[in-house]
Amino acid sequence: MKIALGSDHGGYDLKERVKAFLDSQSIPYEDFGTGSKDSCDYPVFGKAAAEAVADGRCDKGIVICTTGIGISITANKVKGIRCALCSDSWSAEMTRRHNDANMLAMGAGVVGPNLAERIVEVFLNTQFEGGRHARRVGLITEMEK
Q: From the candidates 9, 58, 65, 86, which is the catalytic residue?
């Protein structure tokens, strides 16, 4: 499994913490930026990470800005992306089980670093249940056509 990462300046520190966590779990990733705390535009980095997931270069993605809202909206504009904004581990679990979310968004101003690690762990380790949920995900996918 390879993870696409993206953040703006508001999410930079938390993204670096997530990278350290992924390293500790030997999970490969590609960082699509930003590379500093200098002011920047989250759509640039959210789009890059989402496109890497959509085209198969990465299996899942994690995007972070101050609230998680803007970067999740951006990621969801890319065809094939189901990005869920999560601020707790239960939501991360359920979006994988029921929505087959392929991207996770977090808000660095909302989620602390320890909780963020737990959310990432749950998101990456929870499997999609399929069944009736697959039908619903299929209906969402149809809307993209």
A: 65
CATH architecture, domain defined by 3-143: 3-Layer(aba) Sandwich (3.40)
CB atoms within 10 A of CB 142: 8
* 65 in active site: yes
What contacts 24+ positions apart, CB below 8 Å, involve 125-129?
126/92, 126/93, 126/96, 126/97, 127/96, 127/97, 128/96, 128/97, 128/100, 129/97, 129/98
Span 31-88, pLDDT tens digits: 999 999 999 999 999 999 999 999 999 999 999 999 999 999 999 999 999 999 999 9
9 is catalytic: no
Catalytic residue among 9, 58, 86, 98: 98
Domain ranges, ordered by start, for the chain:
3-143
Residues 6+ apart with CB under 8 A from 142: none
In this prediction, residue 46 carries a pLDDT of 98
CA distance 134 to 97: 10
